[in-house]
């Protein structure tokens, strides 16, 4: 959740480039969408799930990431305390994911048995870009009867999320270290998710970079595919033109409805009488990232999309976007 234009700000989310907590505790945020430089190998984190991947062999070429992603990983060594946390608790939370063409991808045949990985059947919430885990860990404690699956690529953020989760004693969180835009179509089946959260995704504020934004018509179709009928997509941003874009994307998706259409118009909106913004959801905590945005004078907008029933004639069926059967 960081701003790709300012390594010191906290943005998308998903400011710090991926996740609400962003550049906390002195970490330099990574920039979503950057290619991993040739020759740079990511550090490996201990993982749950048992594929047994280790670090890339010394001297092996770094994988080439051919496409611009909504966010990619930039590696840096973990602080000693975070490394110890990962060695002790990482396997309880971070899934061991087989890779496709790059370090932030998942193999096309990776279809995890989530009830087995969580140890139970429960409603599933997906958070994209949890950053340091302020939101997802708080939610996991508040709703112990739900399972939470987070997609994140920022390794220090993952380590801090794991540290928070272990400290809070919550066991209903799993993390996939991958680009959500590529991973969701592979990892998650149709009508398998109750809620999707996209809080403060990277706004890619430069006009030439906005095509890299995660929230797009194509991604909305993917979210609609994985949501159960009546499931919700909760979004928030403190970047105004991204808020207008989120609203437009939700309202243009035939499988989603905005229950707040016409509400809370904003005079700064190019369509100032249009509205379409939700009240702040009480379950969305005020993160360090959002606080920094408020201090900079930015105001968050919330957007809500509800999955229409698949039985409704003529609506509700998103275009297939993935390989998951």
Describe this structure in words.
By secondary structure, this protein is of the alpha/beta class. The protein has one domain: Rossmann fold. The chain contains 8 helices and 7 strands; from the N terminus they run ααβαβαβαβαβαβαβ. It has a 7-stranded mixed beta sheet, sandwiched between helices. Helix 1 crosses helix 4 and helix 3 runs parallel beside helix 4. It is globular and about 55 Å long. It starts with 79 loop residues before the first helix and ends in an 18-residue tail after the last strand. The N terminus and C terminus are likely disordered.
Write the layout of secondary structure elements.
Blueprint: H1 80-93, H2 114-118, E1 124-128, H3 134-142, E2 147-152, H4 155-168, E3 173-177, H5 180-187, E4 193-199, H6 217-226, E5 227-237, H7 240-252, E6 256-257, H8 288-295, E7 301-307
Parallel strand pairs: 1-2, 1-4, 2-3, 4-5
Antiparallel strand pairs: 5-7, 6-7
**Name given to the CATH architecture:** 3-Layer(aba) Sandwich
Helix tally equals 8
CATH names the topology as Rossmann fold
Major sheet summary line: 7 strands, mixed
The proportion of strand residues reads 5-15%
Oligomer: single chain
- Could you give me the name of the CATH homologous superfamily? Vaccinia Virus protein VP39
Instruction: Supply the number of structural domains.
Output: 1
Low-confidence stretches: 1-44, 49-73, 319-325
pLDDT average, as an integer? 80
- Say how many strands there are: 7
Strand order of the largest sheet: 3-2-1-4-5-7-6
The H/E string reads HHEHEHEHEHEHEHE
Estimate percent helicity. 10-25%
| Structural class computed from helices and strand pairing | alpha/beta
Shape: globular
> What is the rounded distance between the termini?
31 Å
Radius of gyration equals 18 Å
Report the top-level CATH class.
Alpha Beta
């Amino acid at each position: 959740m960081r701003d790709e234009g300012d390594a010191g700000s906290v943005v998308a989310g998903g400011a710090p480039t991926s996740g609400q907590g962003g550049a906390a505790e002195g970490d330099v945020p990574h920039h979503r969408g950057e290619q991993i430089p040739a020759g740079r190998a990511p550090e490996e984190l201990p993982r749950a799930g048992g594929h047994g991947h280790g670090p890339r062999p010394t001297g092996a070429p770094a994988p080439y990431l051919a496409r611009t992603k909504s966010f990619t990983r930039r590696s840096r060594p973990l602080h000693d305390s975070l490394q110890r946390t990962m060695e002790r608790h990482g396997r309880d939370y971070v899934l061991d994911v087989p890779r496709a063409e790059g370090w932030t991808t998942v193999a096309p045949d990776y279809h995890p048995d989530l009830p087995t990985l969580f140890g139970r059947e429960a409603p599933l919430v997906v958070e994209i870009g949890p950053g340091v885990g302020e939101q997802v860990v708080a939610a996991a404690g508040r709703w112990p009867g739900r399972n939470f699956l987070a997609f994140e690529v920022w390794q220090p953020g993952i380590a801090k999320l794991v540290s928070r989760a272990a400290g809070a004693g919550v066991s209903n969180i799993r993390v996939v270290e991958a680009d959500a835009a590529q991973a969701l179509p592979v990892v998650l089946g149709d009508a398998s998710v109750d809620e999707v959260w996209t809080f403060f995704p990277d706004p890619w504020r430069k006009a030439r970079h906005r095509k890299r934004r995660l929230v797009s018509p194509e991604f909305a179709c993917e979210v609609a595919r994985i949501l159960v009928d009546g499931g919700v997509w909760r979004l928030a941003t403190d970047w105004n033109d991204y808020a207008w874009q989120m609203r437009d994307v939700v309202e243009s998706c035939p499988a989603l409805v905005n229950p707040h259409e016409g509400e809370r118009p904003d005079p700064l909106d190019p369509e100032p009488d249009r509205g379409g913004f939700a009240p702040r959801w009480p379950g969305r905590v005020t993160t360090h990232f959002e606080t920094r945005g408020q201090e900079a004078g930015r105001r968050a907008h919330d957007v809500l999309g509800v999955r229409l029933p698949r039985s409704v004639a003529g609506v509700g069926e998103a275009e297939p976007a993935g390989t998951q059967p």
